[in-house]
Each structure stands twice: as structure tokens, then as C-alpha cells.
Amino acid sequence: MAAVAGKALGDSAFSAPGQRGTRQRRVIREWLGTSAAFVSAQQVREGIAAKGDAVGLTTVYRTLQALADAGEVDVLRTDTGEALYRKCGTGHHHHLTCRSCELTIELAGPPSVEKWSQSTADEFGFNDVQHVIELSGTCSNCR
Amino acid sequence: MAAVAGKALGDSAFSAPGQRGTRQRRVIREWLGTSAAFVSAQQVREGIAAKGDAVGLTTVYRTLQALADAGEVDVLRTDTGEALYRKCGTGHHHHLTCRSCELTIELAGPPSVEKWSQSTADEFGFNDVQHVIELSGTCSNCR
DNA sequence: ATTGACAATGACAACCGTTTTCACTTAGAG
DNA sequence: CTCTAAGTGAAAACGGTTGTCATTGTCAAT
After folding, report:
1. How far apart are CA B73 and CA A76, in angstroms?
2. Which of A84, A124, A132, A141 is the best mutation test for B, with the most CBs of B within 10 A?
């Protein structure tokens, strides 16, 4: 149910068996690539509409979810529960976000967390640990 | 806007000017104290109802929010956007949560993060940094 | 003890992001 | 070209949360 096959199939995602290449998916992925910030599903739709393309909100939600499942985008929740998406660079990283303007900076984690999280997991008998670190503060502009 | 004054006022919260001591608030705080896990607003209400007390859902939401603002409870969001609350121990801490059963363990942070987050914030010109670390994994029971 | 002002409550409706439904369209294999 | 299952999207459903507003309760002042 959850897991999508998604093997290595060249560099074009959505080539998994039973997945079709449609205009909508192409447009959404392209648009995401141009945005550096975290955006909501609605913003994606608006951004695309502003370019003259139209994609149904339902499709935006479904596509973003698929991208998230495939690990192509990061997802995070605002404190109102809204989901924000962002095309993520390769590899593991964390975020420093301005509480006022939402400016987000991608960070490498502190060198020691990997070890710490693993040993903590071991200590409590947990497997497959993942860690998320979010820093928030007030950026120089919003000071 | 974010920061709440919350001075030392003895050990009774809800003593801020213009705040009254009501049955509902007492009951909610008491019930929270008996639950070690993260719970939703609805669960709080049900738990209280099961004890024979009745509190309106609206009041539960408002009270939990007030407690969260006052720093008396931790808030986190499930991946469905639902808010979960938990009476937190004193001081700063993090969580290790089982992705399957939601079992949550309270952790002290790795020793170096404080320094790291401060220096990272400095580097990017951010003030008032806060950090959140969430570890997730599969606990031994859910293996 | 009584009063009165205003905080608090709670049933209910509104909100809003997200998901489901379902009839219609379309990509792409044969 | 044809066929079929995947994809689409408008609209409705959903579910957690927040707003509304008439009523109730607290507590300081009397």
C-alpha cells in the first residue's frame, strides 16, 4: 500500500510500472524545481496557474504525495497543521527557519547527531531510527 | 507575539491576571498529569468523560492551547496534521517516538547541539534560536 | 451575603486543508 | 487504431480546529 516500487529507471521519475507521464505531473515537478522555499499545495497550484498552466487541486495533492513517498520532496507541517513541500537536494539535511518570514536555510547536521541518535535508539531498543532537526529563530531582516 | 511572559507565580498556573480557576481547567490539568503519552484534544475529552466529568470540546482546545502557550505541555503534529499534547517534565528535552505505536520516550539532547545550533544561528544572522529534535524508529514491541 | 463586571463555558456553525468519489479523459501497450 | 487501466478534476465529504454568542460562574468590591 504505502511503498512505491520506484526503481532506478534513468532520471525520469514517474516511470514506475503503471505510472504515466502526464502534462500535469511534468508541470508540477518543473515548477517545484524553480522554488527554493517550502510551499503549500495551494501555492503550487497558484504558481502553476500564474504561468498559464492549469492543474486541478486534487492532482496537485496526489502528485505531491507521490513525490513525497518517492523521497523527491521534503514535507513538513506548519504549526497550523498545513503541509509544506519542497524539492530537496540530495542527501540528508536539516532546516533553519525564520519564525516570522518563513525564510528557510538548508543545513548539514551537527557532526555528532548521527552517532548520538543511533546509540540512543540502541539504548531503547529502537530500529530504523531517523532524526529530524529543526532550528527556528528570527532572521536578520525580521529582527 | 510568540513569547508569553509567564513569570514565577508559585506553582499554580492560571494565576495570570484575568484568569480564573474553574472546574474544567482543574480537571484537564489533572487528567493530563496522569497520562504519560501524547494525546489528542478529543482523547483528553474522552478520558475526562470516562471519569464522569464533562468538559466541552471547545474548552478542551482552548485550555490545551493555553497550557501550550504557557509551556506546560508539549505539542506535536502527527503526519495527518492532528495536534497531540503532553504534559512535559521540566526543562528542555526531545523525543524518540515509535512510528508504529506512537510510544514516546523523553530524551535529553546530545551534548553538542546547543553549541551547534547557536553557532549556526550566528552564522546566518538568526536570533533567538530554538531547536527541536525528533527521533523516530520502530520499538522492540513493534519490530 | 449580595452584587456586578467580565472571564469562561459550550452547543453549534463556520473554516480550511485534505481526501474521497465518480464520471470523463488520455497515455501508451499491443 | 483500439482497448484498457491510469490519471484527472469538480464537487462533495471529512475531520480537526476555531469562531460565535448566549448563558453561566468566578471573584473582587461592597
Report:
1. 21
2. A124
Q: Where are the beta strands (DSSP E) in A25-64?
A: 39-40
Q: Which one of A98, A121, A139 has the shortest CB-CB distance to B135?
A: A121
Say yes or no to pLDDT of A17 above 60: no
- Kindly write down the DSSP assignment for every residue of B73-125, as one continuous string: EEEEE-TTS-EEEEE--SS--EEEEETTT--EEEEPPPTTHHHHHHHHHHHTT
CATH for B11-86 (1.10.10.10, 3.30.1360.170, 3.20.20.70, 3.40.30.10): 1.10.10.10
- Rounded distance between C-alpha atoms, residue A54 and residue A28, angstroms: 10
Distance from chain centroid for Cα B31? 14
CATH class of B94-137: alpha beta
Partner B contacted by A134 (CB < 8 A) = yes
> What is the value of pTM for the model shown?
0.72
More confident site: B122 or B101: B122
Q: What is the pLDDT of residues A73-99, one digit of tens each?
A: 888 888 889 999 988 765 677 888 877
**Position A118, amino acid:** Q
Dist. CA B28–CA B19, nearest whole Å: 15
Cβ atoms A33, A88 nearer than 8 A: no
How far is it, in rounded angstroms, from Cα B124 to Cα B115? 14
